[in-house]
């Protein structure tokens, strides 16, 4: 598996308090990688490191084969970036902003930019400081896509946008990925949005990567199981228990477990415990349970 | 070339109010100075030159202001966006800094051309006696070079990291305070004047601001 982005044991401390420590992650080429985490988890800082906007204190970062920050310029020519906070110049019009952006990106597709402009309903002569949040989000996405990037780095691209705009943006993104096989690294705390979109997911909390795995594995591996009987007999299970709650006085329990496979049911039965139910968790519940388990373990 | 064109256009969009104001001054200065100094009586030619020399003070002042303001405002747009947009463009930082400089200097050259054209227009309205000569090209060239040199030095300072700029500003402020204290305490020595002279003296970085600025001279 080739990787579009690789972090190896990266350390970075942007100021007092918060720090990214020993961050290792790898984004498979051609994947849509959802980067999940609560506010302040270090998602934006990780993206800044990825783009060469910050210099790590230790570790190695490689993006599209270029070592960052040393060879950031070469990598940036192949990266479309949508930041969390709009960074375009407010005194330009939509058309001028696109033209200015195009001047620095040799692969910029003017025709497609014009098509997207129509599709998104962006008025070419509108000043950027008069754009709504949704329109600004569309313009940022337009500029990033029209670069024809091999990697799209999107930092909370739909945060605060209404559902219609959100759908427009994500549709354009999915269409581009389908046509060009680009890699997408998308950070968000909107878990449901990523659940539909991503095939890989990384969970970040407190500057550390909690877990990284294919979306299917994350969704299928985390279950809520209802047990009846002497649950104390279930020592050293072949799965990890993220949370436990007792049910009634008869020794029953509800556990949230990670790494669940079909064989686990037989293992439980062999120990005299009845498995009453195995329920799927959606990504948000799985995400919350993983964070809780990690924080409890700290 | 595409990038430079884009940068020139960008500067126009971000600084156009200032550029237009500077162009009005550059166009007005030779016309107003000449029209207001030109004698009605040819026998008053000697006082005409004195008056024109008095007006000449405004050229280096205008050149210094043009260069300095351009150096300050040129980074404003990037500062507002915390340099994120600039830093994520696929261009080496030094090249981006260079492009910004060249674009800023190009607008100053444009202002120099305005001054030159206005000087020619002003000169066309008078008939010079044989004893006097006009120097529109030299004046415009001197104005342009002086403004560009101030811009270049100001630009170097504003391009420094914010922390370094703060240190430089504090050192300058400290010198001013020390000088004021020295004056109050009656200590001899005017080192600020000495610094000023060193800056605009023959070998100083602002040497072009010194000397005579005459549209017409003997």
Beta-strand content bin of chain A? 25-35%
**H-E string of chain A:** EEEHEEHEHHHEHEHEEHEEEHEH
Overall number of strands of chain B: 2
Q: In CATH's first tier, which class of the largest domain in chain A applies?
A: Alpha Beta
The largest pleated sheet of chain B is described as: 2 strands, antiparallel
Description:
The complex is a heterodimer of chains A (298) and B (218). By secondary structure, chain A is α/β, with parallel strands linked by helices. Chain A folds into two domains: 3-217, 3-Layer(aba) Sandwich (Rossmann fold); 223-280, Alpha-Beta Plaits (2-Layer Sandwich), CATH 3.30.70. Chain A contains ten helices and 14 strands. Chain A has helices at residues 43-50, 72-76, 94-103, 110-120, 133-146, 163-180, 191-197, 215-221, 263-270, 283-297; strands at 3-12, 20-28, 32-36, 58-63, 66-68, 79-82, 151-155, 183-188, 200-205, 208-214, 223-228, 240-247, 252-258, 274-280. In chain A, the strands form three sheets. Chain A has a six-stranded mixed sheet, sandwiched between helices. The mean pLDDT of chain A is 89. By secondary structure, chain B is mainly alpha-helical. Chain B has one domain (2-162, 208-217). Chain B has helices at 2-37, 45-55, 58-73, 76-80, 84-87, 93-124, 136-159, 162-184, 191-200; strands spanning 133-134, 216-217. A two-stranded antiparallel ribbon of chain B has the order 1-2. The longest helix of chain B has 36 residues, at 2-37. The N and C termini of chain B lie far apart (43 Å). The A-B interface holds A 51-53, 73-74, 76-77, 79, 81, 83, 85, 87-92, 96, 99-100, 103-105 and B 2-3, 5-6, 9-10, 13-14, 77, 80-82, 84-85, 87-92.
């Amino acid at each position: 598996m080739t990787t579009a982005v690789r972090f190896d044991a990266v350390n970075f401390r942007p100021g007092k308090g918060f720090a990214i420590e020993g961050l290792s992650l790898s984004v498979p080429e051609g994947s849509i990688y959802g980067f999940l985490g609560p506010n302040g988890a270090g998602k934006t800082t990780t993206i800044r490191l990825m783009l060469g906007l910050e210099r790590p204190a230790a570790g190695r970062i490689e993006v599209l084969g270029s070592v960052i920050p040393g060879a950031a310029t070469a990598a940036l020519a192949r990266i479309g970036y949508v930041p969390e906070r709009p960074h375009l110049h407010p005194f330009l019009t939509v058309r001028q902003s696109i033209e200015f952006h195009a001047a620095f990106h040799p692969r910029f597709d003017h025709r497609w930019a014009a098509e997207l402009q129509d599709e998104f309903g962006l008025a070419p002569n509108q000043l950027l400081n008069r754009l709504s949040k949704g329109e600004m989000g569309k313009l940022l996405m337009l500029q990033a896509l029209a670069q024809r990037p091999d990697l799209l780095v999107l930092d909370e691209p739909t945060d605060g946008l209404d559902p219609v705009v959100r759908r427009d943006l994500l549709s354009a993104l999915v269409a581009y990925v389908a046509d060009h096989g680009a890699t997408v690294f998308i950070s968000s705390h909107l878990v449901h949005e990523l659940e539909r979109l991503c095939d890989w997911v990384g969970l970040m909390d407190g500057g550390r990567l909690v877990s990284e795995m294919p979306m299917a594995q994350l969704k299928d591996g985390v279950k809520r199981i209802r047990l009846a009987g002497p649950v104390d007999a279930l020592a050293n299970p072949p799965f990890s228990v993220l949370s436990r709650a007792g049910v009634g006085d008869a020794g029953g329990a509800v556990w949230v477990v990670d790494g669940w496979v079909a064989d686990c049911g037989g293992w439980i039965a062999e120990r005299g415990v009845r498995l009453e139910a195995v329920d799927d968790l959606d990504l948000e519940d799985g995400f919350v349970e993983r964070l809780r388990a990690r924080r409890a373990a700290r | 070339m595409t990038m430079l064109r884009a940068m020139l256009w960008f500067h126009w969009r971000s600084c156009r109010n200032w550029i237009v104001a500077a162009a009005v001054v550059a166009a007005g200065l030779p016309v107003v100075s000449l029209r207001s100094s030109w004698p009605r009586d040819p026998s008053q030619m000697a006082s005409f030159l004195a008056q024109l020399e008095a007006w000449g003070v405004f050229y280096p002042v205008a050149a210094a202001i043009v260069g300095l303001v351009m150096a300050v405002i040129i980074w404003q747009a990037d500062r507002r966006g915390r340099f994120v947009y600039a830093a994520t463009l696929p261009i080496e930082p030094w090249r981006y800094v260079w492009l910004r400089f060249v674009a800023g200097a190009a607008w100053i050259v444009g202002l120099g051309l305005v001054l030159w054209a206005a000087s020619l227009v002003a000169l066309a309205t008078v008939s010079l006696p044989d004893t006097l000569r006009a120097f529109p090209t030299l004046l415009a060239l001197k104005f342009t070079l002086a403004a560009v040199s101030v811009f270049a030095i100001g630009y170097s300072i504003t391009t420094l990291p914010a922390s370094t700029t703060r240190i430089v500003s504090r050192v300058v402020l400290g010198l001013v305070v020390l000088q004021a204290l020295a004056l109050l305490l009656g200590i001899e020595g005017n080192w600020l004047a000495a610094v000023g002279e060193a800056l605009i003296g023959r070998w100083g970085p602002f040497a072009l601001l010194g000397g005579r600025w005459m549209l017409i001279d003997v």
